[in-house]
Amino acid sequence: MSAIAGYVGNADPAVLDKMLNAVAYRGDRSDTAHANGAGIGYRMWSGRPGKSSGVHQNGDSLCAVSGSVVPRVDSPASELPAILNDPARLARLDGNFAAAWWDGDRKRLSFLRDPFGVRTLYYVEHAGVFYFASELKQILAIPGFRNEPDLVAIHKYLTFSFVPGEDVPIKGVKRLLPGRIAVWQDGKLSITPYFALREKIDPELAVRKPAVKLVRRLCREAVTKRLNGESEVGLFLSGGLDSSGVGVWLKQAGVNVKAFSLDFGKASVERDQAKIVAETLGIPLTFVKAGGEDLVPVIMDLVWKLDLPFGDAVTGPQYLMARAARQAGLSAVFNGEGGDQLFGGWTSKPMISAQLYAGLYGEDSREQNYLRSYHRFYNLEDRLYTPEFLAQIGPPGPRRALLAPYLRSENATTFLNRIRLADISLKGSQNILPRMDRTSQCWGLDVRAPLFDRALAEASFTLPPQMKLHGACEKYVLKLALQKYLPREIVWRRKFGMSVPITDWALGPLAGVLEDLLGPVSLKRRGLFRPEYIAELRAGHDQPNEIRRRRIGERLWTLAMLEAWFRVFIDGKGVSPGGSA
Amino acid sequence: MKCIRCNKDSNYKDRTNGTCPNCKGAFVFEPKNGDPITDMLFLNAINGVSGDGRIRWGVEHLYYEINRRWKRSRMPMGCIFILLVATAGLLGAAAINAAAVPNKPLPTTKKDPAATKTVSFALGGAVALMILTVGLVSRIPRPLVRMDLATFNRLWDRWRQVNGTPKGLIERMPEPEMPKDLEADIGDYSFDRAVICDRARTVDLLVANNFHFENNCAILSIEGYPKGPFKVIMAMLKRNPKLQIFVLHDATIPGCRLAQRLITEPEWFGGCGLRVIDLGLRPRHAGPFHGLLLEGPSIRPNDEIGIEQAEAEWLSKYKLELAAARPEQVLKRLFAGLMAHAADDPRAADSSGSVTTCGAFDAGGYGGADGDGGGGEGGADAFG
Questions:
Q1: Angle, vertex CA A514, rays to CA A508 and CA A517, nearest 5
Q2: Which end of chain A has the smaller Cβ count within 10 Å, N or C?
Q3: Inter-chain residue contact A359 with B210, CB threshold 8 Å
Q4: B186–A349: do the CB atoms touch at under 8 Å?
Q5: How far apart are CA B315 and CA B299, in angstroms?
Q6: Residue B100 belongs to what domain range?
Q7: Whether A480 contacts A218, CB under 8 Å
């Protein structure tokens, strides 16, 4: 719950204040330091345990760390040089952080992100100065910087529902990938990974007992080491297996927990399950009402806080739930994100099915199927894009190229683990975690996803994949690990997932917002999309082979969030549009 | 006749060499020369089955779509009734007037000229109306298809020669074997559900439209298609003791017995104690397919395994292929059937298994583009 920014080169030192003020909501005070051709700034909340208290300066050395480092240290900023200089510590480095170190003696800037990408770092070279920052809006605050949209990155967003890889939808700006250290020295940038998952299957873990014991121990530790001494923490409880499991381990750690769950009214899918879990664990549970009408007044603020366009409608309800947790007096909250990615949920079975039937009627690659799994506009470009937009998106290869390092990775030999690598690195690190962090940061809330734990993730790649997907049973080992603590109906039921009733909202309470964002006037002005196709979606019709009604809302929300992002970050140059509730 | 390229309406004499006088594009069909349909009807049928090029479809779907559109009767029943009443009225009038004509014996042949004229007029009118009625009655759709397959195939070949293969047509690649470089673990897993079809072309329709991918679903034909991955998929299916099994078939004697075969034959799921859900088609689904039926085998099934007594008579007279339903409707109704049973316990009461019928294909509207068969959304989704 904080942000950093910095520069190397001949910049006006006052630029740091501008960059920190652009994210004033990320703290109640700022600290800046300058030394020998560089400057680093830090926006923070006072008195948060386990966080740096300011920019650490030692002669010409400047360090700042936004977030928490695991294993926990009292002052992450002062420890940063020691961590970066010690391969053994780097090999264990975990947490949720973005950090930077200016080594004035060697005139070298190092900056890095946590292994799974909870915290973000952008960078850009402008007018001979190298800048980095936690948020895109901080980059836009650099005087004289031109914010031209990058339509190739927008095209990727429309396929994935988030902007994948290093791309940022503003020309010239890049994003450091998670688990990487970037070094800027002598006008050159080099990037090296300090974290990569590798399959190393331990045959002894094919036996239930040791596998379950290992998972239980690592999950418990993952939760415990993310407690920074808070007397009370929140839990976003969906009623599904993963968040329920985090609830179990939080209770075992002896911390007071308040749970929050979303209430979609009649469209709620897991409401009863959340109640059962809360009662089982003895955790007070608050239902947070989330309806389309609740999002109307906050959409533009949500878009501004999200920083990048995110096309999953869960961001709206998450924003409302984080607000409720903050209003309940909490500063830290846990969730169950990561269970699917580590232990074989969601995409495994469809991808297996696709692989078995591949090639019967034409080209049908693993990458194509994975792109299809996002259910946005892959292969619908001709219907959606205007000819002008189509002419600027380049060839189809780059999207598939993003996937090949995972889906055909040499770090894994099994099909399931290759899909896991893609899910962790793309859906997890580039979508779920950053959007989760930002919807919580909106309200000064520090969010922790303990299942995205480095030791646990590494251990998950020592498990035989059949312990993750056992027949058709997903997350098998996690279910075994939790069956002794949770009711059978929670552990062994078929997964439902959080189904945001976005189609009902898009065609109902959000229709006015969509008219503003996706009506003919707006579409004509932006010039990217064909109005006929969007009009069909807004009338409640999708492609004839699209059997799920939910896709209508998902697609409309993806488009609406993009147009709102254009208004805030391109037309509005990243300045807050207001509307925070 | 309208040109499919420029929409220009032209007369026969203007269509020199079978080309459009406006854009010079070639016509495929010429009703004046005996072709049963026009280019525009054929094109509209293609657009109908392909959802304007957005859905994959088979040539068999086009055959039924052409039959659905060809010489479609437009509500003649009311007209026929009025014509019959009018005919009866005229005949009545003729009879009354005939009675009014002096029935004097010959040679006094002096008749009332006005009455004679009225009788002649009434009889003439009645004959004309009867001819019209017979004409309209001939347009009432019959249960069986009007255009035979051989005629359709000739038309289809000619269409492709001029206009090429339409978008979305499912054409099989040379059937691939299981890739040799596929990861070894892929056969270790299983599926949530299986859809077993009585014909491979139904498998083609579902797989080409990604139904398997969207629904964690194995799709196989009873004859073992697709051959490449068939054995691997069957072994995978048997790994799930809670496998949901659905059958999708033609309304034929073997089709209606498909579910029974699955729960009795050991190479399928005999002895597994699973419940098989029969989605159809069965004779009771035939209502919306009037005019799209095929002739049955003319013999009643010799036992009632998988077939109710009331169905046996129908199945001896007719056959109804699933391809008579538009691809969009098949996908949506199948999905609705899956969702309707998403929370059911797939296990039968004992190891002999059981069969349940499902109403997903019950409602009408198969020909329309706006059927709402896919409205229900359960939680057994493939993605979050």
A1: 170
A2: C
A3: no
A4: no
A5: 8
A6: 76-137
A7: no
The minimal CB distance from A353 to the residues B191, B209, B241 is found for: B191
Residue A353: how many other CB atoms lie within 10 Å = 28
- Determine the average pLDDT of the residues in A295-312: 96
**pLDDT one-digit tens code per residue, A470-521:** 999 999 999 999 999 999 999 998 766 558 999 999 999 999 999 999 999 9
Q: What is the CATH number of the domain that holds B257?
A: 3.40.1360.10
Pairwise CA distance, residues B258 & B256, whole Å: 6
Inspect the interface and report whether the beta carbons of A471 and B240 lie closer than 8 Å.
Answer: yes
Q: How far is CA A374 from CA A300, A311, B239, B335, in A?
A: 24, 10, 28, 19
Q: Please report whether residue B176 resides in a domain.
A: no
Range B175-204 burial, b when 16+ CB lie within 10 A, else e: eeebeeeebebbbbbbbbbbbbbbbbbbbb
Query: Helix H segments across chain B?
Result: 39-50, 59-69, 76-100, 113-137, 149-163, 200-208, 211-214, 227-237, 253-256, 258-264, 309-317, 327-340
- Do B97 and B150 belong together in one domain? no
Do residues B84 and B207 both lie within one domain? no
Instruction: Determine which of B205-209, B276-280, B281-285, B354-358 has the lowest per-residue pLDDT on average.
Output: B354-358
Kindly calculate the radius of gyration of chain A based on its CA atoms and give it in whole angstroms: 23
Residue B362 inside a domain? The answer is: no
Residues B216 and B132 grouped into a single domain? no
- Identity of the residue in B186, B207, B233 whose CB atom sits nearest the CB atom of A360: B207
Tally of domains in chain B: 3
What pLDDT, in 10s, does the model give residues B201-210?
Answer: 999 999 999 9
Q: With an 8 Å Cβ cutoff, is A355 touching chain B?
A: yes
Q: Is A550 on the interface with B (CB under 8 A)?
A: yes
Q: Could you check whether the bond before residue B226 is cis, i.e. omega within 30 degrees of 0?
A: yes
Select the more confidently predicted residue: B357 or A187. A187
The answer to whether residues B205 and B339 belong to one domain is yes
Which amino acid, one-letter code, is at A502? I
SS3 A551: helix
Q: Are B227 and B295 found together in one domain?
A: yes
Indicate whether A170 pLDDT > 60: yes
Q: Is residue B343 predicted with pLDDT exceeding 80?
A: yes
A vs B, Cβ pairs < 8 A, gives 152
- Do residues B327 and B191 share a domain? yes
Q: Which domains does chain A have, with CATH numbers?
A: 3-193 (3.60.20.10), 203-341+432-491 (3.40.50.620)
* Residue A345, C-beta contacts closer than 8 angstroms, at least 6 positions apart: A339, A474, A475, A495
B213:A348 CB<8 A: no
A422 membership: H or E segment, kind and range:
helix A415-422
